[in-house]
Design brief:
- The complex is a heterotrimer of chains A (310), B (403) and C (90).
- Chain A is α/β, with parallel strands linked by helices and 310 residues long.
- Helices cover 39% and strands 15% of the residues of chain A.
- An eight-stranded mixed beta sheet of chain A has the order 3-1-4-5-7-6-8-9, with helices on both faces.
- In chain A, a hairpin with a 2-residue loop joins strand 8 and strand 9.
- Chain C has three helices and three strands.
- Chain C starts with a helix and ends with a strand.
- The chains are: A alpha/beta (310), B alpha/beta (403), C alpha+beta (90).
- Chains A and B meet through strand 1, strand 3, helix 3 and helix 5 of A and strand 3, helix 3, helix 5 and strand 9 of B.
Chain lengths: 310, 403, 90
């Protein structure tokens, strides 16, 4: 059984980086590295991770890393996978390194969706990791396709009017062998999903909800608490999708099975400054209701993939 | 191996001969047959490479870069809108110093849609840091792809290289050509030996944020690579001629320049057309020579200064236009001559969007240039066609509607 | 040592993995996490949640050279063994 004690001690994310206080991406990198080991290559598209890794000539990342353009994640990974395959054929390497593409929601939901979709459709053997902080945090918190309804960003000063898209479901529609959602509040669930992703051949899509303290306007000490409440309120559902079937995991599983009561979305919204502008307005209640409805719909849709609920 | 093939298929055969290991590509007219042939060779077991059927040109170039950084030899091919679409990654490939080769089938950029030949696409990539060859014959297509890898992979160059060939004139026409044997090429061009790579044994970060304190030198280093390429190109072309017995010039190719009074300067197949012009006008007693720019990047500065000393006037043919200025080669050539020669230079713009350029037209313009009748910049084949008259009618209708 | 880029010929953006690539990030700290040995039960929760890899797994030592003082360890500690203490003016 995987326990915190059984996790590797070695840190491939090196302390003293340029990440903000309480950064979810740096923490996610730490845990991912522990699960994947050092025989890997990281492709990073333009995002906070382009910056938090440090700047020339030093780096906080102790695995080979290729920084690539915003829209090019899936394609960069495809090239690396093909290159290593060629090297193995040539007899230059024994084992191909695990190729991991690391991008934010901008690089995944929006500008990068084409190259991600292409790489997945080509059944490229890599892990695509999206750390979704639901906004363009790197450029100073603008709206993205992942920004939830009602959320303030600098380009939705009155709160976003539209729902976020469900890209994990879009990836499931690509019929790739593994799709999983993870949360920093459930590190062992996260760790095990990364390990499983590593063991599967084909395209693996993992998405983390990455609460961003400066962007979402909560204290840096609350990154884990916000992550936890996102899951407990159903605003972030933990599951894995394998062989055409979905399995709920961790706290989400308990909520779905009725073992734990789902907390109201309102509690989650109230923890974050980004929802304050909309909550303070008369239509705040409407936004709340719409988000509760979104959660219900998401659960219903996911249940359609779970054999025991079909 | 003697083959009868199209220019596009010859590119694919050259890619195989060069021992390319990864080919990410996206189809576009008139490049499509290059990648169809590569896919066919791989599927038939005649070529041992990874073909990545990417979903866009932006992705083609991104995959090309990443594949190269693993230490594999990588190639792609594109054209026009495809090249424009990958523009960001074209910069990226040079900036991260990926020694890749890409064939670009020169085609006009729309709108309106036009699949035919001109050089607007690759000229628009002038400042990306890539080396650019413009080829004039089928045989040169093959030889340039092989030479290209030898040049770009040289540790003092490490800049990507674009082999430009004219749409349809070369890409879709059949000619017999000599494709060197793979073993022969391997001796001339051994497997790619990277100077650095993505390697878990020594993990480093490639392409991280570079602050103003350090950035300029990374770009100056690219210019040093371009400068070094001038020497490497000459060495590689000389060695290639020794091994394979074929010579297409190095930075430039000259034809009857030594006693010429006027030089026609051209790139690609318009240079081949101009060779006919030289022969025709020589029969008329006019001392005309041809100066073919083979490498547009690095630009043949020294060669052009030497030309300026040897001829009395120059006619530059541009199959492109830098809007708000003039033909791009015209500008570059004058820049190279500045302070070294006061020889008069004229600019002829012809053949945009694949319009056929006859040797008679170039000959006529050259005669005018000699007699001093040609203006500084001449759109040599400009005319109002019946189609343009229909558009004019539409504009009249709009005038009635919109006032 | 080469004096000019012409002598070096080649510079590209390769960066070397280094602890403290942003300097001694402990200087960013406003609040300092302080561990009470008597309350710590070595559950490793602070270790796994540290976004900066500043807590050692073997002995739960906080690396003050790089700890930015985000406060996650104190917030998440189930035995309240870590408290955040305001840094003195440097």
């Amino acid at each position: 059984m995987v326990t915190l004690k059984s996790l590797p001690e070695e840190e491939l994310f090196l302390a003293g980086s340029t990440a903000c206080h309480g950064c979810p991406s740096s923490l996610a990198l730490r845990i991912a590295f522990k699960a994947l080991g050092s025989n890997m290559v990281l492709i990073v598209v333009a995002s906070c991770t382009s910056v938090l890794q440090g700047s020339y000539p030093l780096s906080a990342i102790n695995v080979p890393l290729l920084n690539i353009a915003f829209a090019a994640g899936g394609a960069g990974a495809s090239g690396a996978v093909a290159g290593f395959k060629a090297l193995k054929k040539r007899g230059e390497i024994e084992e191909e390194p695990t190729v991991v593409m690391w991008g934010g929601d901008g690089g995944t939901y929006d500008i990068g969706i084409q190259s991600l979709s292409g790489a997945a459709e080509r059944e490229t053997n890599f892990i695509y990791f999206c750390y979704n902080n639901e906004m363009y945090s790197n450029t100073g918190t603008q709206r993205s396709g992942a920004t939830p309804l009602g959320a303030w960003t600098t380009t939705t000063p009155a709160g976003k009017h539209q729902h976020r898209k469900d890209i994990a479901q879009i990836m499931i529609a690509h019929r790739i062998p593994y799709v999983a959602t993870v949360s920093l509040a459930y590190p062992l669930d996260f760790y095990q999903k990364m390990q499983k992703a590593k063991s599967i051949v084909g395209t693996k899509y993992i998405e983390l909800l990455a609460p961003c303290p400066p962007g979402w306007k909560f204290p840096s000490s609350k990154t884990i608490e916000v992550s936890r409440l996102a899951v407990q309120s159903g605003m972030w559902l933990l599951y894995e999708h394998e062989n055409g079937e979905t399995r709920f995991t961790a706290a989400t599983k308990k909520i779905i099975e009725g073992k734990v009561k789902k907390r109201p979305v309102k509690e989650y919204l109230e923890m974050q400054g980004r929802f304050r502008p909309v909550l303070e307005k008369p239509e705040g209640k409407e936004a709340e209701d719409l988000l509760e409805k979104e959660v219900t719909e998401s659960i219903r849709r996911l249940k359609g993939w779970v054999p025991e609920y079909i | 191996m003697r083959v009868l093939e199209t220019g596009n298929h010859l590119v694919a055969l050259a890619v195989r001969a060069a021992g390319v290991e990864v080919v990410p590509a996206y189809p576009i007219t008139p490049q499509t047959q290059v990648i169809e042939k590569v896919a066919e060779l791989i599927a038939g077991g005649h070529m041992d490479a990874e073909y990545i059927p990417v979903e866009s040109e932006h992705s083609a170039c991104a995959a090309l870069i990443a594949a190269s950084l693993t230490g594999a030899r990588a190639f792609s091919a594109t054209s026009a809108h495809g090249l424009a679409y990958m523009h960001e990654m074209v910069h990226f490939a040079a900036g991260i110093r990926a020694p890749v080769v890409m064939a670009n089938i020169n085609r006009a950029l729309g709108p309106g849609w036009n699949i035919w030949c001109d050089h607007q696409d690759s000229i628009s990539q002038r400042d990306t840091g890539w080396l650019q060859i413009y080829v004039a014959s089928h045989q040169e297509v093959i030889d340039s792809v092989i030479q290209g890898f030898k040049i770009t992979e040289n540790w003092s160059v490490m800049l990507p290289l674009m082999v430009n060939l004219d749409a349809f004139v070369l890409s879709h026409t059949y000619t017999d050509a000599e494709v060197p044997e793979i073993e022969e090429v391997r001796e001339f061009l051994p497997p790619y030996k990277p100077r650095w790579k993505l390697d878990p044994r020594f993990p480093v970060t490639h392409g991280s944020v570079v602050y103003p304190d350090d950035f300029s030198e990374t770009r100056q280093s690219m210019q040093i690579g371009q400068n070094n390429a001038r020497r490497v190109i000459k060495e590689v072309c000389r060695d290639y001629a020794e091994v394979f017995g074929r010579w297409h010039g190095d930075m430039v190719e000259e034809y009857l320049i030594d006693d010429a009074e006027i030089a026609i300067v051209a790139m690609g197949t318009l240079a081949s057309e101009s060779r006919v012009v030289v022969d025709v006008l020589r029969q008329e007693g006019l001392r005309v020579g041809l100066f073919r720019i083979r490498f547009f990047r690095p630009f043949p500065i020294e060669e052009i200064r030497s030309l300026g000393e040897r001829v009395k006037s120059i006619l530059v043919i541009d199959r492109n236009y830098s809007y708000g200025m003039e033909g791009a080669v015209f500008t570059e050539l004058k820049g190279a001559l500045y302070g070294f020669s006061n020889v008069p230079v004229r600019n002829l713009i012809v053949g945009l969007g694949g319009r056929d350029v006859s040797y008679e037209l170039i000959a006529d313009m050259t005669r005018k240039a000699i007699s001093g009748e040609l203006g500084e910049i001449t759109w040599g084949d400009s005319r109002i066609t019946p189609s343009h008259r229909v558009t004019l009618e539409c504009l009249e209708e709009f005038k009635k509607l919109l006032g | 040592m080469a004096e000019s880029i012409e002598e070096i010929e080649f510079i590209t953006s390769l960066s070397r993995p280094t602890k403290g690539c942003a300097g001694d990030t402990g200087e960013w700290r406003v609040f300092r996490p302080v561990k009470d040995e008597t309350k710590c039960n070595n559950c490793l929760i602070c270790w796994i949640y540290c976004p900066e890899a500043c807590i050692s797994k073997s002995d739960i030592e906080i690396d003050y050279q790089y700890c930015k003082g985000c406060g996650i360890c104190a917030e998440e500690c189930p035995t309240k063994a870590i408290v955040m203490v305001k840094e003195e003016k440097r």
